[in-house]
Amino acid sequence: MIAVIDYGAGNIKSIVNALSDITKDYIVTNKESDLLKCDKIIFPGVGEASFAVKRLHLLNLFTMLRIIKKPLLGICLGMQILCDKSIEGDVTCLGIINTTTEMFNKSKVKVPHMGWNKVEIIKENKLFEGIENYSYFYFAHSYYVPIGDYTIAKTNYDVEFSAACQKDNFYGIQFHPEKSGSNGIKVLRNFIEKC
């Protein structure tokens, strides 16, 4: 069973639509008891980091998500919240990935960054199995996770940044798989079937 976390800051409908092409074995929930029963967790996100973290605290999910041992996939804002901190709202996040999210420089590029970017896979990983290196994925975000030891794929928009990360059972993707065509669906399928 896959759990999709609905904490009020996610593009839940579009993720669920993509997910339902892969499996019928999922639930949408914001209850800790449901998450503990599931095999894997998808943590989507569109919106503002400090609001999202506040919601996780209100739902009593923050601490559980920090220590859970099940595979968890953070998408877009969901990946950024895996970091120590976000400069968006100057908020302390889950602290899985030891870095702070940054904002693109508005004086150099249009913010938010929206569109298709070529992604370079820099570490062999189950998420990208069967996907050609330098494939295109769809991005829509103003903040990014810097390159670090946890980066498994990268792309560039004025600066190089993490397109995907992994630390232990925690995976993160900055792009939107549900808007990234067959490659995005393949990443979701890989997470569900292989991670």
Task: Report what the structure shows.
This protein has 195 residues and is α/β, with parallel strands linked by helices. It has one domain (2-194): Rossmann fold (3-Layer(aba) Sandwich). It contains six helices and 13 strands. Strand 1, helix 1 and strand 2 (26-29) form a beta-alpha-beta unit. The two termini are 14 Å apart.
Q: Secondary-structure blueprint of this entry?
A:
Layout (H helix, E strand, L loop, with lengths): L1 E4 L6 H9 L5 E4 L2 H6 L2 E4 L5 H10 L3 H6 L4 E4 L1 H4 L2 E4 L4 E2 L4 E7 L9 E9 L13 E7 L1 E2 L6 E7 L1 E9 L2 E4 L7 H14 L1
Parallel strand pairs: 1-2, 1-3, 3-4, 4-13, 5-7
Antiparallel strand pairs: 5-6, 7-10, 8-9, 8-11, 11-12, 12-13
Provide keyphrases for this structure.
195 residues; Rossmann fold; alpha/beta; 4-stranded mixed sheet; 25% helix
Helix-strand makeup class: alpha/beta
Can you tell me the CATH topology? Answer: Rossmann fold
CATH homologous superfamily annotation: Class I glutamine amidotransferase (GATase) domain
Total helices: the number is 6
Mean pLDDT: 96
**Helical coverage, percent range:** 25-40%
